Amino acid sequence: MIEELEIFKDTDTISATQVLILFFLKMGSSDHTASKYLMPKEIIKEHPPMFHIRTSDKIIHLQIEKINPERLISLIKNTNFADITSVNLFPPIII
Asked: Which H/E stretch holds residue 79?
């Protein structure tokens, strides 16, 4: 039986060389959407979103690559698992 679900994304570190990313972040778009406009050299340290599923005897860690974490959160909110789901999405640091 599933005891806990967690959606987790650690802080990414990005370079401030791209003015466009700052513009999108200030416009209120999600970090996931804004990060699509970055060049690989502008991402100093990237942490992919993770989806953790905890049962009584196992913990399953899934890396989320193809879906926006906010989309997964909205899908889970419409299920019976909403009460056991925790969300920890940390915004990027721009240096």
From this structure: none
Cα-based torsion angle of the residue sequence 59, 60, 64, 67 in order, rounded to the nearest 10 degrees: -100
37-90 pLDDT, tens digit each: 677 777 888 888 999 999 999 999 999 887 888 889 999 999 999 999 999 999
First to last CA, the chain: 43
Measured CA to CA, the distance from residue 19 to residue 23 in angstroms comes to 6
CA dihedral 19, 88, 84, 67 (to 10 degrees): 40
Q: What's the pTM value of the predicted model, to 2 decimals?
A: 0.76
Residue that has been written with the tokens 């200030």 in this structure: 26
* Residue 34 φ/ψ region, left for φ over 0, alpha for ψ in the -120 to 50 degree band, beta for the rest: alpha
